[in-house]
């Protein structure tokens, strides 16, 4: 940590605006009610904050500096650049003078309307950030530009239609006059009215100057030089440290047997019991961890008692065989009738083990509660959520406006940090220790054993062919816990199959679950794409030819297929001992991936040599960053498909740290990952979760082509591969 935080001066925008010169443009997410306020006029500024609490999207200074506020979490996906870039594009701002700050965590003002028509959320999940904020940021940026144009027109007494903007400069061609945005500040006024800023009033794609260009990310320099602040870096005066012992079995209740002994440990300040854990507060983290090891706890039974993950698949198979409807996700035509009248039928079960998020930065939060327990300051790296105050007001019993959340950079999220359990735990400890600030830290062992996992599941996929050899039915039953966590990605909207049925059959084991990158797509797209190749292999047809026919009504999906085929030289034979496999995925954006693999038949280890991806994500805001996200998604997909698994015996997680939870290593990375972005003027779609779920299908399909055998259980560990090869 570089500097102590005695107060949140680097984050609190009220203080930031008061201490900075210039003008704040108060433009809400709806694009309504813009107000100009001089940042040196504290009385006026205070009045406007009361009317429009911390609602400025942008601040200008007289020297031309521009601060744009980012409402999304930044966990390496580039939102700290992409969203302000969209605003700056419409504002015609000089990007070299733009600085970016996190916006306050106030969903009514900064929430995205892209989640639902009835509510706005600040929720950086589901690859929805750029997609949901694109129109909002464009409209707000266009309004900021209009304020500047209107003010210049009044200042020069010329029609606004005669003015142009470029790179933070307004010009009037008739008179040759020019004025920079900073120079215009003394003359800024509020327009009497605003255009609607429909598609006609905002820029055409062909006129973009920033969007679609490779613009360096704003936060990278600070991450390189070490000045970037993550929650783990936060240090406050008089700060104490909290840890929890949660046990090995999810939901078990503790009884502490040695309270007095623990309180005598060096530095221990307080013991705080939870329903599912024992909390400790100490003067230092080291003291807290030492005392944690000395805890003697008697644990109750729990829902997960007796549960064995490796043995449960036989029960899942029986559940799938009952042919119950369960929760129907899609039903088109009549799969049963098509099955009865088919010329050939196929059926296969695919399995998927629990997977851990493995985010690099340990879960942690710093919270300081006021002495009267009425206010709180929170420093956290969060993917936010339905409650932007992350459950803290409920813990303290105070109004939401009394809690100020200072969002920090995230050292990895992948869905885990969209759950606020670690924030709420810290709030409980901080309430006990008020007014001392408390830092709660989950160790890696804490998070692995009491984490929230991608659910295990079984997919029973059945398909049939008609008399012409065409696929005429496709049935997909997923068995597992977690609803959308296991059932997303089960639809086949881009495949023209006349009869389709998909459903979810629920199981419950008392194991904590959460969204994991691409959610249910990882397991379900693997099952779908593998089944298609099994059919193609049996029918002795090219898997690409099969998909071409199925994509006949989906030209954008088909374009990604054709581009991936071209990039990978699909029709050219692979080197001896290698084979290529293909997989298509829709997760907001559309993508087709091709990989080339080899298999060591003595060890069972699969090596991915090359990966090619063609992606249609609509308008691309940052091309280089999209490619980086796709590359990261491929690596994460390989890690989960080849190595990662959580196993549970008698309700207890067996893995404890990265010594026994295996992740992909540098030596296992592909020699190359090539990505082609397809030009599009469609609304931007998410890219952070498209490449990950295509990996398992592409690898299994390459394995089928190479060996003639099918891989059906993720991960494809060497032991499982050897079993298949020797079967």
TrEMBL record:
Aldehyde oxidase/xanthine dehydrogenase a/b hammerhead domain ranges (all copies): 225-303
PANTHER family: ALDEHYDE DEHYDROGENASE (PTHR47495)
Key words of the record: Oxidoreductase
A molecular function (GO) term: isoquinoline 1-oxidoreductase activity
EC number(s) given by UniProt: 1.3.99.16
Superkingdom as given in the UniProt entry: Bacteria
Enzyme class: oxidoreductase
Protein name from the UniProt record: Isoquinoline 1-oxidoreductase beta subunit
Pfam families reported for this sequence: MoCoBD_1, MoCoBD_2
